[in-house]
Specification:
The protein is α/β, with parallel strands linked by helices. The longest helix has 16 residues.
Length: 252
């Protein structure tokens, strides 16, 4: 599970994230939503231990990431929105490299890599250099690398960016299957239809503050609109009636 306790990040006089308290349970898919500049990426970096909070704590499966960073990080699989990988490695070499970082035994790594190549239809490309991969293929190999050590917590930033519809559906089905096995899935996305269909619970952050959290039905009650879809709820909770710029952004 993921737990944040009064998580705060200041940049000078700017507060990017303010007293964020979240609990994401095992077996749950949590959608983390917000407009540009709301604090989503800053929050993800603090949860993963890539950014030190100004104050507050993050616990991964009960382990404080500031006190035991290696143990906590070993439980996380991070899938960023932009793949940053080694272009001069083959897909197979890259997965083995990541597996080695997490002390995955080679025979286990080989088996998991083959499963990943099969799942993402990359078997014919496994031994080609990553620099020859398309953006979508790079995104697939990054997802595979995040899963090769069998993490208990999966964190995703725009997981379907660059994927064709078939692959995007595969990722959505995969995340639901992982949650079904008791994994904790924390997902940031701007595609609200995906969040509405996939997430057990969503949290909406705006200007660094968590302004709403719950199931879609709970958010409808908060917004006093029992028939609203997530996009309408999002706009009402973050922008009121003045939502032209946000609508433009969401449609972009």
């Amino acid at each position: 599970m993921i737990e944040t306790i009064n998580l705060t990040k200041n940049y000078g006089n700017l507060t990017a994230v303010k007293n964020l308290n979240l609990t994401v349970n095992a077996g749950e898919i949590y959608g983390f939503l917000g407009p540009n500049g709301a604090g989503k990426t800053t929050t993800i970096k603090m949860i993963c231990g890539l950014l030190k909070p100004t104050k507050g704590r993050v616990k991964i499966d009960g382990i404080d990431i500031s006190e035991s960073p290696i143990e906590a990080k070993s439980k996380i699989g991070l899938i960023p929105d932009t793949p940053n990988i080694y272009p001069k490695l083959t897909g197979r070499e890259f997965l083995y490299f990541i597996a080695d970082i997490y002390d995955v035994q080679r025979e286990v790594a080989v088996k998991r890599a083959e499963e990943i190549f099969e799942m993402f239809d990359l078997k014919d490309k496994a031994d080609e250099l990553i620099e020859t991969y398309s953006h979508g293929m790079k995104q697939k190999i990054v997802i595979g690398a995040a899963l090769v050590h069998d993490p208990s917590v999966i964190i995703l930033d725009e997981p379907t960016v660059g994927l064709d519809p078939k692959s995007a559906k595969l990722v959505k089905d995969l995340l639901r299957a992982l949650a079904g096995k008791g994994k904790t899935v924390f997902m940031s996305t701007h595609i609200l239809e995906i969040a509405e269909r996939m997430c057990d619970k969503v949290g909406i952050i705006n200007e660094g503050t968590l302004i709403a959290e719950g199931t879609i039905d709970e958010l409808r009650k908060k917004a006093k609109d029992e028939t609203a879809d997530l996009e309408k709820l999002f706009l009402e909770l973050t922008g009121g009636e003045d939502t032209k710029d946000l609508v433009k952004f969401l449609e972009g």
